[in-house]
Every structure is written in structure tokens, then in C-alpha cells.
Specification:
580 residues, mainly alpha, 3 domains, 2 strands, elongated, disordered C terminus
Amino acid sequence: MEEFKTYKPLLASIKHEYETTIAHLKEKIYSLESVNAYLVTVSDQCTKKILAFQEQEKVEIAQLKKERIYLLKLIDQMKEEKCSLEVQVHKLRRAVAEENLRYLNECDARKLLLLDLNEMYRLKEEMKLTTKVQDEKGEDPVTLTLALKTARRDLTKAQVELNTMKANYGDVVPRRDFESQEKKYNELVEKMMVLETEFQDVQEEYNTMLDVHRQIAEERDQFYNELINVQRISTPRPDWDKCADVIAGGRERWNALSEGKTSDQLLDVLLEDLGALILREKETFVPLGKSDRVPVYLRYDGLVRNKKLTKKEVVAILREIWREKILIDQQKGKRSSLSEFFLNFFQRKYGDTIAFDWTYTTYEVMKLYRSNEAMSMFLSILNGNLDEGIYHSQLQQLATLLKELTNVDTANSGQLTSEQFIVALKSAFPLKTDEQIQELVDAAGYRPETPEDFILYRLLFLEDEEGRPEPLVSKIKDQYVNEKQAYLHDLRAELGNMEVRPDDLRAAFCIVDPGLPDQTLELYLTHVFQTSKEQLDSAFSLPVEMVMLRLAGLDLKRQGTISGEARGAPPAAEEIESVS
């Protein structure tokens, strides 16, 4: 406070705010002691409830086990009855086969008996005739003896057949009893299948209840840990309206700067504003020298004056640098280094000595306003953290979209319906999903409740003096970032945690993006492994984290299976320049 007298009121208010916060935290710690005791009581109650639930589940499990044992015994009993019935059926089948054989033998014997009976009738008739003759002449003892022998032989044969029938069919079950037993057996089998199905259902429900119980216990532990963490790290939200009385421009400027921003973004706004005041008070910068480690646009030993540029002036300078660089690169047919062009631009415009005043001032302003998208991207490309192709790729996307919108606008009225706007979006971005297309339509300001309104598409590509684009352009850039992150995530999943060789990275690209052109793939590989195309096979393997870090700086876009002709030719230089 003694060093910076200019900011003494602001620092005093910040110190007072810290002291108020510390006193508030001490009071809150004292009040949370009773809350901690209450949480311990609630935790004991929850533990008792869980134990009660577990005891209840143990009783239910014991009952289910008893029922399972009973069902298993019943199943064993039914299996035994089934085996007994199968033995009886086997015995009955064998008996039926023997009876069938006996019936066949009996049929043959019956035929022989009929023949013998016919012979006996014939002999009887003959005997009658003979008897009549003998009555007339007297009985013949020989004939009577033959008749007696035949009768005794027939009696013996009949007795043998009778004994055979009793021996074969003494244990035979009547067909009526057999059918009754078979019907009872089928009913028992059906009941056993039903009981097995019910037992499986009960077992599945029991397993489900165990899973639910485990998930509930895990959620309870997670919520309790989250509660402890929230209680530990929670702090009162700062009163940002106090900054309105200190910041330059008063409450009106602070309201314009803080509208719709989070606490983290408000802190960036406050730091940028304070940093701008400090930077404006500086008259000179400390040069970094002419070491090779110093970027070429900062290699200087003399006096470096502060040009005190505003944010709007720096954004205008960056636009002019990009415009000239695109034209010069197209004339030369190759892309030059942005760091060298950055220095050459000011040298051509202000001379070799004063040029470093402009490079240092512009560089410091860009470092200060990190929240400004135009400055942040330019600084990242200037420092080598991003590939310059990302900037040109975004310009090409916008130029393609503007070309498609102009083609749909046959009347050249500068306004389109929502249907025409969606057709142009799908033609310009064929790989985007319907949800992404709808996000772009919403960002363009179209409202379904007023379908009669038109979309003034030419106004969607404008930027303000500080480089802030319209919502549509911001949404396109956000989708590009999200698509790139998803692309990198898929590559990371394919590569795993191993050391990455060029062949591994090539295979991962072929799996994740089969439509990637070979030339683009080779460009990615040479950038990641920092070697030429001919030396890729002998390149050393790299850790996967370093590979992903170098890929993050490239212009990665999923190509899919769409050919170059289907995507359309790149826009002309005039179209890129108009969008820029």
C-alpha cells in the first residue's frame, strides 16, 4: 500500500475484504461445530438403518436358502420317481415284446390246434362210422387205445400252455394303470419346470437387490465425501459491485464489463484493467537481449519505449498484419514464419530501430488481454504453441459458409429463411450433426416462435473494434475446439499408455479417421516426431503425452469418408480476405 499510493484505496478495500472474510470464516467454523455433531448423529442413524436393512436381508436370505433346499429335495425326489417310472416303462416294453412273441407263437399253435381239431373231427366222424360198424360188428380195442393216447397228449399240451401263460403274464400291469401313472409323471415334470423357473427368477431378483444395495451404499459414501469437501472449501462469494467504485469509468463501465460473466472471468477483467493502468504508466520496457533463446521480434539491446497502445489499436494492427501476410504468402506461394513477419511488418513501416518499440508494446498488450480471442490466438501462434494453419482453417470455414449462404441467396437480398439457412449450413459443413446445425441456427438469432423473421446473414460475420465476433462465428469456433478435443480423445484411446512410434500413430489415425489423406497424415507425423518424411522409419518413440501435446497445436479436422471434391474447392484469396 505504501509502494502503490495510486491504488491505496483499492488495496485498502481488498485488505478490509480479506479481514472481513477471515472474521466471517472464524464465526462459521464456530457455528459448524454443532453442525459436525449433528452430522455425526445423522451418520450413526444411517449406519443403524443400514444394519437394520442388512439384518432384514439376512432373514430373507435365510428363508430363500431354506426354500431353495426344500425345492432341491423335491427335485431329487421327482428325479427318483422319474428313474423308477423309466425302469417300469423299460420292463413293460420288454414284457410287451415278449408277450407279442408269445402271441405269435400262440397264433401258430392255434393254427396247428385247428388242424389237429379238424383231424380229430375227421377221426371222430370216422370213429362214429367205425362205431356204427362196430356196433353192428362189435368194438375194436386198438381203436379205443389210439383214441385214449391222443386225448392224453392233447391234455398234456393244454396244461403246458396254461402254465406258460401264468408264468409270462403273472406280473403284467393293466394298460389302464400304466396310462394313469404316465399322466401323473408328466404333470410332475411340468410342476418341476415351473418351480425351476420361479427359483431362477427369485435368484435374479436377489442378485438385483444386492447390486442396488451396493450402489446405494456407494452413492451415500460419495455424497458424504462431497458434503465434507463442500464444507471444507466453501467460501463466501465476493461482492464484485465494490469494484465499480474503484475501476476507471465508474459503475456504468463496470456493469458493461461484468455483464454475464462468471467470477473467474470477472477476476480476469479486473486484472486486465489494472494491468492496463500499470502498462500505461510505464515509459520504457526492459529489453531481453540478443540471445538465441529470445524470440526474433524481441532481440534488442537498446532503449525500448512504450507506445501505450489501446486494445482497439492492437486489434487493428493484428488485422493489418494478417491481411498483409496472407497476400504476401499467396504471392510467394509458401507460408512464412509469423514471428519473422511480425518484426518485418514494423521494420517496413517504422524503421529498424523504432520497430522494436512497437513489437514490445504489442507483445505486452497481447499478454495482458488473454481473454481477447484475436490477441490470444495471435500470441499462441507467435509463440509456436499453435499452428498457423488453425487461423487459416477457421477463415476458410467462414469463407465457405459465406459462399454457400450467398449461393442460396439467389435474390441477393442479404436475408434468408431458416430453411435456406439450414441448407447452406449443411452444404458448408457436411460432417456436422443435426444438433450442431441447430446450435448454429440458434446462434444466428433465429427464433421458432417468430418464423416469419428472416436471418440477415451478412451481419453475422462482423466484428467490433476489439475483435469480438458475432455469436455465430463464436459458436463455429467453439464447435471446432470441441470436435478437435473429441478427435484427440479418440486418438488417445487408440494409442493407450505406451511409447508411440510413427507406425503406431499412423495406425491410430487410420482407425480413427479412415478418410484422412496420406499427404496430411505424413504432415502430422513429421510435425509430431520433428523429422523429415524419409527419416520417419528411424525416428525414436515418444511418450504419448508429448505426442498429444504436439498434436494439440496442429489444425486437426476429421475428414471422414468424404472426398475432396465432395467437400468443395477451397475459397479464393479474395473471399478469405473479405471474411478476415
